[in-house]
Amino acid sequence: MFLYHAKEHDYYQIPIHGNSCSKIGVDAGGPPVTGNTRNFIVDPVREEKCVSLMQSLAPKFVGPIMYTKTCLYTMTPDRHFVIDKCDKEGWSDVIFCCGAGHAFKFACLLGKIMSEMAIDGKTQYDIAGFTRYREAITDPNYPNDFQWGKQIAEQAADRAKL
């Protein structure tokens, strides 16, 4: 399994349980769509980028393409979770969490946070950056920032300036 931060995209590879193949994909590499505007047409350019990357990293790993599928997942513009309560609307007993496309990897922690909020009305963890009232959610002009590699490179450049 890996996540590869390239200049133009982030790529990932995960094994497929029960098959002698792996899933290789471009993370958030397609155009932003909704459930109504998406299509299921495979992009041959992205497919070739995945094959080329694997040929450069691990050429013995590359075999015939078994099948190609498109996928769709929901992300906030800043790619972060939304964890919040509905107390401002008068529903103090309602809490919610939106996973932003990668919650399954954090299910144990998110469950703990949600259970603490349900039982104690608060959590021991700092979730201030995950409110639904943050700029990425409230500003309709907030730019999409989906690529992790870009964020990591920018953070490294900022540290190098110090």
UniProtKB/TrEMBL annotation:
<dbReference type="InterPro" id="IPR006076">
    <property type="entry name" value="FAD-dep_OxRdtase"/>
</dbReference>
<dbReference type="GO" id="GO:0050660">
    <property type="term" value="F:flavin adenine dinucleotide binding"/>
</dbReference>
<dbReference type="InterPro" id="IPR045170">
    <property type="entry name" value="MTOX"/>
</dbReference>
<protein>
    <recommendedName>
        <fullName>FAD dependent oxidoreductase domain-containing protein</fullName>
    </recommendedName>
</protein>
<dbReference type="GO" id="GO:0008115">
    <property type="term" value="F:sarcosine oxidase activity"/>
</dbReference>
<dbReference type="InterPro" id="IPR036188">
    <property type="entry name" value="FAD/NAD-bd_sf"/>
</dbReference>
<keyword id="KW-0560">Oxidoreductase</keyword>
<keyword id="KW-0274">FAD</keyword>
<comment type="similarity">
    <text>Belongs to the MSOX/MTOX family.</text>
</comment>
<keyword id="KW-0285">Flavoprotein</keyword>
<dbReference type="Pfam" id="PF01266">
    <property type="entry name" value="DAO"/>
</dbReference>
<feature type="domain" description="FAD dependent oxidoreductase">
    <location>
        <begin position="31"/>
        <end position="117"/>
    </location>
</feature>
